[in-house]
Amino acid sequence: MPRPEVLDQIQTAEDEADEIVAEAEAERDDRIAEARERAAEIREEAEAEARELKEQRLADAREEIEDERETILEEGRQKREELVDQASEREDDAVEFVLELFEEAVHAQT
């Protein structure tokens, strides 16, 4: 084979190799861009899920606190009722005791 043909074949092979490398680099860049886009999508989805989970946990905590608050208030109402009942039961005794003290005081002055 004559030398110019060999050089042409070498040049053609080098051009083809350069083209293959350029295509591979372009494909690599495309894949990297796609991977970055997908990573951004995944990150956004994860952040959205985290926000939803946070909001749900806050709602659950608020509900639990409200339930506990109602329980405490109900216990307070029951305790107040008990104290009112006890005071009512002892009201007659207290009135009688005060009257006795009054009568004693009146008798002591006479």
UniProtKB/TrEMBL annotation:
Residues 7-93 form a coiled coil. It comes from Natranaeroarchaeum sulfidigenes. This is Archaeal/vacuolar-type H+-ATPase subunit G/H. NCBIfam families: AhaH. The keyword Coiled coil applies. Keywords: Coiled coil. InterPro entries: ATP_synth_B-like_membr_sf, ATPase_A1A0-cplx_hsu.
